[in-house]
Amino acid sequence: MNQRTELIEDREYDTVASSAMHVTKQILNVQHVVIIQPYIKWGPRKNPTKPDLLLQEAEALVRSLPRWNIELSMKVPVETLDKRQLFGTGKLEELKGIIQARQETGTPLTCVFISKGTLTYGQKQTLEQVFRLPVMDRYSVVVQILRLHAVSMEAKLQVALAELPYIWSQVKDQEGSAKGGGRIFLSDSQRQMLQLRERKLRNELATIRSHRELLRNRRRQKNFPVVAVVGYTNAGKTSLIKALTEEQSLKPRDQLFATLDVTAHAGLLPCKLEVLYMDTVGFMADIPTGLIECFVATLEDAMLADVIVHVQDMAHENCAEQRAHVERTLGKLMQQGNNGDRALISERIINVGNKIDLVADPADLRMDSGGEQQRLHLISSRTLVGVHELLLEVERRVLRATGRQRMVIRVPMGGQELAWLYKNAAVTESAADPNNAERLLVSVVISEAKLQQFRHLFIRNRG
């Protein structure tokens, strides 16, 4: 067993993670879940998203896990999310009564999901004592989903690293609230194990990262333009790439965080230029920074792309807020990352409104959420409406971003020039020159560097 596999299959660590987060390797175990969505009623910290939509997203998270059943789902107003017991005493007793009443009818309940980014150790301990059930927050539920969808070794290591900030925060909270007494959350040997695990994970991911840098450099050498496809989770990114590339092996799934690895898919633009579409992990609101930071490296390829396609689910009631969240997060990632001169300018971004086949009147969607006349490309990845027009726009942006140009070059029939152009440019058409039977007219898309190389090889050297 190599070191990477040992890091994933570490029983001592699994015991600590299970205690801190209630996550498990046995994801297929049946869970009967109570969902409680707290929301602030008023004030500056009030969420712009409606409580009903917050609850819908919490339910979608739970449904992303096989055999996790929602038995009870409710939204609860609070003044603040920072109280030790989260809810007022009266509300807490009311919730306890609701849960007990459901249990007395014979409904099995196995855990309570409080849809808040992260619960402190004190909040979790108080709620577990009252409800007498394990309590999970968004961080731990999302980690459970990520564990399920992590396929590559890199994704598994990223998820393993993402778990550690949460465990350390729980330890810190517990120590702060223990006041010199109470159960010790971690033994000294467990602390050492976590510290060593974190070092090993970071080292392994650094190795993988350098390998990906090597692959990226090879792509640059081959001069493939890169189009990153980003968006809120379940907006239809994979479906769009399937529509753009006609890659039948792609299997889009109606799930949150269905795509965890950044994957590359080759496609042809109408001008016959080959591009790489990068499928990326989805964004989601109220995901703690500890989780997002672990996927910054995974999104590096997207940040360095020539063009970014931002896919939006036009059928979702909260589409405007989802779009704003993705734009804010992209902006932060751009500031954190090493992106060279790749600024997040509007010319690099194509806004795409997907799933218009599920919208009653797509004509109402032409104006963006801010009321500006910014172009929104309306499409349906399922019915392919608008996909060809989008491809033409991708082509236009790619040619501009990469300094490529369309031109017709006259070359000798049967000469080396034609073979060179096929290898180093995108040849869209070749036809006999009507004015010279010994010549061909070749329509190409070619970069400035390759054009100069062609001139140097074949034009300047003619006697």
Automatic annotation (TrEMBL):
InterPro entries: G_HFLX_dom (IPR030394), GTP-bd (IPR006073), GTP-bd_M (IPR032305), GTPase_HflX (IPR016496), GTPase_HflX_N (IPR025121), GTPase_HflX_N_sf (IPR042108), P-loop_NTPase (IPR027417). It comes from the Eukaryota. Residues 225-402 form the Hflx-type G domain. Keywords: GTP-binding, Magnesium, Metal-binding, Nucleotide-binding. GTP binds at residues 231-238, 257-261, 279-282, 354-357, 380-382. PROSITE patterns: G_HFLX. This is Hflx-type G domain-containing protein. Its cofactor is Mg(2+). One of its GO terms (molecular function) is GTP binding. One of its GO terms (cellular component) is cytoplasm. Mg(2+) binds at T238, T259.
